[in-house]
Amino acid sequence: MLTQQDIIDFCNQHDYDVRKSKSARWIDQKLTVDVLSFIADCILQFTADDPHKEFKVKDIWMFEPVGESVRLIFKKPDVNNPKAKREYDKFFGQPLKLLGYAKVLREEKRRGCNIYKIENGQVLEYIATRERNAIFFLKTYIEKVLLDSDMMTYFDDFFARQNKDTYKRVKTAMQEFTINNTEVNGIKECNRIFTKVINVLAYYRNARGTRRGHISKSVITYDELMYNRLNFRDIYADKPKGITRKEYAATHPVKVNVAYYHYQSAKAKRFLRVFNDQNRGGRTEHLETAHMLDEAIHMHHIFPEAEYPEICYYMENIIALTPTQHLNYAHPNGHTHEIDEQYQHLLLLSKADRIYENLIGASGERIYRFCDFLFVLNVGFDDDDVLDIQDMDFCSVINAINMHYEVKEKRTCLN
User: Fold this and answer.
1) Domain boundaries of the chain, sorted by first residue
2) Model-level pTM?
């Protein structure tokens, strides 16, 4: 499994100077992070039987497992609908062009048609595994393109001094650069490309970017980089303290794209399984002497996906267990719709230990975020006080977990 440093090293191997390539399609106006990650996953599925297989854009969108996912996850029309051809050409074509320019895919034109082949399967898998990876790849790649093209100084200046003057300067510089060095000659299209460039960088710098053609009034948020823009953190940000999650949801109904969250959940489970196999020898994350020699092949949601869709794809809510731990202990008697709360308590404590090891450890990829663990607990416990815990204060996290179940046990006894 690649690390962020591996992605930096990969990009540094290549010359992405747009002045030499004369291509504006190194990034495009329709591209979003979740779509990039999804298309990378589609390519891996299509080439699963032969990693050296060549393919065209239409091969990917007409691949049977892909069609239903696109329709359900991204609410697109049927892939066989002739009227949708142009839309799908962009939806699939633009990420493929980016991956080709980045040298993740090998691209060549034959008889007027772009033919692709996987150039670097590890990087493609890194992008496909989860959206956070895709964002880091995109940020690293954009910075390298701008650096190679002698454009980075305009963006650095804007992020150093965020005002209307520096915004106008970087936007104008990007317009002139694109028109002078690529086939694009329209200001409107230049500005759409500019948005995709500056907002990824702004998100990583926790800075202002662009909205509706102007400098944004606030920092760019994660959901602005996505096609599926529903962000439960933003929704819950307005929830008054003292109001439960269910009470707030009753007065602020949200239409959840179940297919999208199920897909992300499956990817998160797959990622954690690979990470656990490669970095922990496939051992259970909940250390019990009786099961230390058993392989942890089950990825279990500590807070169930059906009840908590908003945290189903957070790896801080998923734990690697042995089949016995999963089906005998976490779910009593194998009833997967039931949760043993005493065991759930223990699993959260174990997950806190694994997150601590990952974030405090001397080496290896950091796959967790402390703030994400707090959000998982906030939603799972329906307790806003958890969000007040200071960064990396694991002692307070352990205390909050223990207190939650102690209070629940007392309530149960009283009833």
Assistant:
1) 4-209, 239-414
2) 0.83
